[in-house]
Specification:
Length: about 475
């Protein structure tokens, strides 16, 4: 059984961060805080959806992935192009144009992820047919969706379709065929995935459902895209017929493509992380009925909307439809691919309670009560000035020991005003030169000390404050 191992591929470029709060407002799992004028990503909350990359106006959130030069680290390399790669190019008449260009770029071989997608579609059809009494099943192809369910919707984990993602199946087939063709050892063969999103970078390093991925490295579509252009020839006589994908496989790049490959009508397809959250909440509340399958992709438009692509997601989706329009429904079948020994997960995906406040149920209830009391003290504006996305999130951070009530500017301002009134009250009515009593003097010094501390946290010039407001 896999223990939880977190790998995050969305990174912060601190030098570019201006301390604005755009990112904390758009993060679907409230994984970002802003303190000391810089954003901070909380590893265990992040699901690598890349939404902060889209919305950061200063380009301070960046995806981590491998450079194309990794192909030089192996004796033999196989490119695994995501079907969304094809949709980046204008007037593409054949997938073979891209696949041949990949070989000219320096790869020794190519295996299409879209070909493996057709195998996954076939396996999914069989699994759903044999387990219809357990429906609806949730797609397990998007790593961000799996991670989201794992940390926020534990009741839905059992609904995840326990089938390997197309990219993993593609990697297994590509490695097996390369070993047979070359006689090389597995470690001498590089399986390089050309990805539309950072979440698959994390998946390759720490997969869910299996012990170890067959993917060696992940490069970005946006890096490969311009390098392929000089090698793209549209003359069919100069192209090797490499492509082995049909309409189902190529269509996986678009929202609804995976569900379409099941050849059933009672399905739901949602794209975009905000829409996905709404669907998962309704599914958890048992508001959704009569479905066999639920397809969820974190990026708007499907994989064509990934942060490592170059084309507008909806234009890319239209290109995919044109490209696959005259293709046969499918060209790949499980019976013809003996390299695939097992299409299913080897390990179960388990709930990871990263958002739980306490170590026990009783402790969590007590801490939640404190959160409610703290939240009631705050203005309820969810303004983000404290560096947390909402007032309740700030309260939870306080209970965890990661923040203080005075991080809320409104609470801080109220405390400063209260201390000022207390000091004024102590000295009110005293004539010039009239000394304070010993108790009054002690109180005055305490109030002044507290006021000085409050002002320091507010960022008064000359003081070292947390927020530097």
């Amino acid at each position: 059984m896999n223990t939880y191992k977190f790998v995050r591929s969305v990174q912060l470029r601190e030098s570019a961060c201006q301390g604005c709060i755009n990112c904390i407002k758009y993060c679907p799992t409230q994984a970002i805080r802003v303190h000391n004028g810089k954003a901070h990503i909380i590893d265990k909350f992040c699901i690598d959806c890349g939404r902060c990359i889209h919305y950061c106006p200063h380009h301070a959130k960046v995806p981590a992935y491998d450079p194309l030069s990794v192909i030089n680290h192996f004796k033999y390399t196989v490119a695994l192009p995501a079907p969304s790669l094809y949709a980046q190019y204008n007037n593409l008449s054949s997938v073979d144009i891209v696949l041949n260009a990949l070989l000219k770029l320096g790869f020794d071989d190519v295996y299409e992820v879209s070909a493996a997608a057709e195998l996954v579609s076939e396996a999914s059809r069989e699994y759903i047919r044999d387990h219809m009494d357990e429906a609806p099943f949730i797609s397990s192809a998007c790593p961000s969706v799996i991670r989201l369910i794992r940390v926020k919707f534990p009741a839905l984990i059992s609904r995840l379709l326990p089938i390997k993602a197309p990219v993993e199946v593609a990697a297994e087939i590509a490695r097996a065929r390369a070993m047979k063709k070359t006689g090389l050892k597995p470690e001498d063969i590089g399986i390089i995935f050309i990805s539309p999103c950072p979440s698959k970078v994390s998946y390759a390093k720490a997969p869910l459902g299996i012990e170890k991925s067959n993917i060696d490295n992940v490069v970005a579509i946006k890096d490969v895209y311009p390098l392929l252009l000089p090698h793209m020839k549209h003359d069919d006589s100069q192209l090797d017929p490499i492509s082995s994908s049909g309409r189902i496989g190529i269509g996986w790049s678009n929202a609804g493509g995976e569900a379409g490959g099941l050849l059933v009508e009672n399905y739901l397809a949602a794209d975009g992380i905000v829409n996905i959250l709404r669907v998962l909440e309704d599914l958890e509340d048992e508001k959704i009925h009569g479905l066999a399958f639920i397809e969820l992709t974190a990026c708007s438009g499907g994989c064509v909307g990934g942060t490592l692509t170059v084309e507008n997601a909806y234009i890319a989706a239209a290109k995919t439809k044109r490209l696959s329009k005259y293709q046969p429904v499918a060209k790949n079948h499980l019976a013809d691919n003996p390299e695939v020994e097992n299409m299913y997960w080897a390990d179960n995906v388990e709930y990871e309670p990263v958002f739980r406040l306490g170590n026990t149920f009783r402790e969590s209830l007590q801490m939640m009560s404190t959160v409610e009391e703290l939240t009631a003290r705050f203005p309820g504006l969810d303004c983000g000035s404290c560096g947390a996305p909402t007032c309740q999130t700030l309260a939870e951070d306080i209970v965890r020991g990661d923040a203080a009530p005075n991080d809320c500017i409104y609470v801080l301002r109220s405390n400063i005003a209260d201390l000022s009134h207390k000091i004024e009250h102590l000295t009110d009515g005293k004539s010039a030169g009239e000394p304070l009593t010993e108790d009054e003097d002690r109180l005055l010094h305490r109030y002044i000390h507290e006021l000085t501390t409050e002002l320091a946290s507010f960022g008064v010039p000359g003081k070292s404050g947390k927020k530097g407001v």
